[in-house]
């Protein structure tokens, strides 16, 4: 597919590297050699789109991506982000381990972030530079100011395109007033369909790629989690809506009804969940958080599944019944 208005060809499934960075949110799991192998084997499965961010374990994800791609950079399209920092003050975002993260989208902060990202990624340009979270008080920066700076980076050849994550439809309209926006990242799965109301149609109207993150709802749609599963305290899943006992049982029951479809398309539940998202529009891209070559090989199969329209509707009906 074409990435927004950039003309760049990218795979419809991208490799997300949040978990690859390890850190407290993932019980400090960090097998660097396996992570590098996963990234390097992406092309073998038709995936050339890699997503990372400085905030993924304080630069560790970017460092791993940079090490993996240093001899093959031109074959990949890389997204990295700005706006979340631990080195400068900003509006408090959250705490990871014993360190705090802050929202800061001032041009000066972005300038410093980009310098560090280029160094960690071992490259002299970023394909898509994306605002990770939007600026808020008491460190609010108008979108017009942020976009003016990002556009200047594009004119200098330091970045090839501009993206925004975790935005509202109103935010996107404001971005578009001040320049070209090529891709929006948003949480989207068959269980989390809020963006369908306004954001997804807006992206379609303006030739903006919508990249869905958490397409398996943090793994719950993989079909490998039992209704008795309890997320460890401090983990990324702990406290999330669909991992609460009553909701988890309902999701597991829904997945049981997917089994005939898995047989029909000769695929896993994870494949089916990802393929359902891809069926929502030609401008839709999916970010898969694979952490091993085996997971990547499995999840990449989804891009070759064409679900019948009736089955797409049936899956939606089952999900709506959970609501």
Automatic annotation (TrEMBL):
Q: Give start and end of each NADP-dependent oxidoreductase domain.
A: 12-319
Q: Name one GO molecular function term.
A: oxidoreductase activity
What Gene3D superfamilies does the database record attribute to this sequence? NADP-dependent oxidoreductase domain
- According to the record, the segments passing through the membrane are none
Q: Which GO terms describe its cellular component?
A: cytosol
What keywords were assigned to this record? Oxidoreductase
Check the record and name the Pfam families matching this protein: Aldo_ket_red
Q: Which CDD domains does the annotation name?
A: AKR_AKR11B2 (cd19149)
Identify the PANTHER family for this entry: NAD(P)-LINKED OXIDOREDUCTASE SUPERFAMILY PROTEIN, NADH-SPECIFIC METHYLGLYOXAL REDUCTASE-RELATED
Q: What is this protein called?
A: Aldo/keto reductase
Q: Which organism is it from?
A: Loigolactobacillus coryniformis
């Amino acid at each position: 597919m074409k990435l927004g208005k950039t003309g760049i060809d990218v795979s419809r499934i991208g490799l997300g590297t949040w978990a690859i960075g390890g850190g407290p949110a993932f019980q400090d799991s960090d097998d660097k050699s396996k992570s590098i192998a996963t990234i390097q084997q992406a092309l073998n499965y038709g995936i050339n789109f890699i997503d990372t961010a400085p905030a993924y374990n304080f630069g560790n994800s970017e460092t791993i991506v940079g090490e993996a791609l240093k001899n093959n950079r031109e074959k990949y399209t890389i997204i990295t982000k700005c706006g979340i920092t631990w080195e400068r003050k900003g509006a408090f975002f959250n705490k990871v381990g014993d360190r705090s993260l802050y929202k800061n989208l001032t041009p000066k902060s972005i300038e410093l972030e980009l310098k560090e990202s280029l160094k960690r990624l071992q490259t002299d340009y970023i394909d898509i530079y994306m605002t990770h979270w939007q600026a808020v008080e008491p460190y609010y920066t108008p979108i017009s100011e942020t976009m003016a700076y990002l556009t200047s980076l594009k004119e200098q050849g330091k970045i090839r395109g501009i993206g925004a994550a975790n935005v509202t439809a109103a935010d996107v309209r404001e971005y578009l007033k001040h320049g070209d926006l090529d891709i929006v990242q948003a949480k989207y799965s068959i269980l989390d369909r809020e963006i369908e109301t306004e954001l997804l149609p807006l992206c379609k109207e303006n030739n903006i790629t919508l990249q869905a993150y958490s397409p398996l709802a943090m793994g719950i749609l993989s079909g490998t989690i039992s209704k008795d599963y309890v997320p460890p305290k401090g983990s990324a899943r702990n406290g999330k809506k669909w991992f609460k006992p009553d909701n988890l049982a309902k999701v597991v029951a829904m997945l049981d009804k997917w089994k005939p479809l898995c047989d029909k398309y000769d695929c896993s539940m994870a494949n089916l969940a990802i393929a359902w998202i891809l069926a929502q529009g030609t401008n839709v891209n999916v970010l898969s958080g694979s952490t091993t070559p085996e997971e990547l090989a499995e999840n990449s199969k989804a891009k070759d599944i064409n679900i019948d329209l009736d089955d797409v509707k049936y899956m939606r009906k089952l999900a709506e019944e959970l609501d």
